[in-house]
What does this fold into?
Amino acid sequence: MQWYGHVKRREESHVVQEMLNKEIPRIVRRGRPKKSWMGQMKSYQLLYGITDEEIQDRQAYKTRLRSHATTSNANSQPHS
It folds into this structure.
């Protein structure tokens, strides 16, 4: 998620942004489609409740990711 923030804050003309926004024609195969990296990032963004404006504000994005990481780590601790 941190790298996703770095990428999203780049200029629209940067090669990485151009590649993320580029539509690639795909062969439609049978069964469930494979998960894409961008699809996973969008689902994490929805799960964490992160807006595009927060991604552009580096400090707000960093705070949101850290707060989620600490709450998820606290929830995963075994109970004694």
